[in-house]
Specification:
The chain is an all-alpha fold. It has one domain. The protein contains 2 helices and no strands. The protein is elongated, with a radius of gyration of 17 Å.
């Protein structure tokens, strides 16, 4: 019983680790890019910058999660 539980949980754990470890550099890069663009365009409204970051980070996160889930499903997990 214990072996079958570990086998089921291991791919879920691996997927979570890969998702999180790929999300951190992506989020950092997207956030930095948004700040560079905001600085270049001379945005001073912090609320607008924050909203743009929230929307773009959410979209990137959802796309990343769908892509990783499809890869794991294709691998049979």
């Amino acid at each position: 019983m214990l072996k079958s539980r570990l086998r089921i949980r291991n791919p879920v754990y691996l997927e979570a680790v890969i998702d999180t470890s790929s999300g951190l550099p992506l989020a950092w890069g997207v956030s930095f890019l948004i700040l560079l663009i905001a600085d270049f365009l001379k945005f001073e409204n912090l609320l607008a910058i924050s909203c743009a970051q929230t929307v773009l980070l959410t979209v990137v996160s959802l796309l990343r999660k769908v892509f990783i889930r499809k890869k794991f499903k294709k691998m049979g997990f």
